[in-house]
Q: What sequence folds into this?
């Protein structure tokens, strides 16, 4: 592989990382917030799909992709609130409800989304950051969506809030020790309900990115399991919002390997490279199972730890 070809591949991976990482980032941040409060939400795959459909339909009818983003967040918040309410009932398992909500969300999206497979909706704009380079390839790779910047800002605010604010302390306390939180007069059920709803809102916005920017259309195979992979990403990031951003970029880069190689004519093993994000997910789950750091940082009230 020549130096020029290597540069093209690296630039393509960089561009792919910036594009593909955004939905991972939002879903991971939403799940990070939810799990910090002591609740697991495995239904975010359904939230992602329903958010994508809601965003596309709203953008198509209103002509405003930003209205679609808001609609996607509201759809995600609705599913999150349902999950949060049901999980506070006696003898209810978070994981089982999450799977049920995943099936419910995808089913609703597929049912109402059939009418929007063919129509074209207005898409989200790009921010050109690479025009100054004079290289068309770098200019294309460095075209980012405003949602990427929003996701990074949300991660910084979340990290700061967990460490320095009263609400951050309450969320962490509810996730680490419910009896301690209750002794301080905190309504643990309310904290987890709000955290799950807010987490669903963020995951829904991740779906809006899929349908309104990249790949920029609505179809029933849009998410490709990204909502479930984001749960592994949170474990890999050890429930740290900033690390969630870094891990999302890593996932995005692995997802861009296949298309990057194809762009320079490398077709052998293409499907193997396309499976890189799923292989990475499997590796992360295996590595995290015996990780002392993950065991130390995991919120104590999560149902997966009991």
A:
């Amino acid at each position: 592989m020549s130096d020029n070809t290597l540069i093209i591949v690296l630039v393509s991976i960089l561009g792919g990382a910036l594009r593909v990482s955004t939905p991972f980032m939002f879903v991971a941040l939403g799940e990070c917030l939810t799990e910090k409060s002591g609740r697991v939400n495995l239904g975010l795959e359904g939230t992602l799909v329903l958010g994508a459909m809601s965003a596309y339909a709203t953008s198509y009818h209103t002509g405003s992709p930003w209205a679609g983003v808001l609609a996607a967040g509201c759809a995600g918040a609705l599913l999150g609130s349902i999950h949060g309410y049901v999980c506070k009932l006696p003898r209810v398992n978070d994981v089982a409800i999450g799977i049920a909500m995943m099936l419910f969300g995808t089913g609703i999206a597929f049912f109402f989304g059939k009418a929007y497979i063919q129509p074209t909706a207005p898409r989200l704009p790009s921010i050109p950051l690479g025009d100054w380079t004079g290289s068309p390839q770098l200019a294309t790779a460095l075209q980012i969506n405003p949602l990427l910047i929003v996701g990074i800002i949300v991660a910084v605010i979340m990290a700061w809030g967990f460490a320095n604010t009263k609400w951050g302390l309450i969320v962490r306390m509810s996730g680490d020790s419910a009896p301690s939180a209750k002794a301080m007069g905190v309504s643990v059920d309310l904290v987890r309900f709000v955290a799950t709803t807010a987490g669903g809102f963020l995951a829904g916005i991740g779906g809006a990115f899929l349908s309104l920017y990249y790949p920029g259309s609505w179809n029933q195979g849009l998410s490709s399991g990204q909502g479930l992979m984001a749960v592994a990403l949170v474990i890999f990031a050890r429930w740290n919002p900033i690390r969630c951003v870094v891990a999302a970029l890593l996932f995005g880069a692995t997802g861009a390997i296949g298309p990057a190689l194809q762009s320079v004519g490398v077709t052998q093993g293409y499907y193997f490279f396309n499976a890189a994000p799923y292989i990475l997910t499997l590796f992360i789950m295996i590595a995290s199972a015996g990780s002392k750091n993950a065991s130390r940082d995991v919120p104590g009230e999560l149902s997966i730890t009991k």
Summary: The two ends are 50 Å apart (CA to CA).
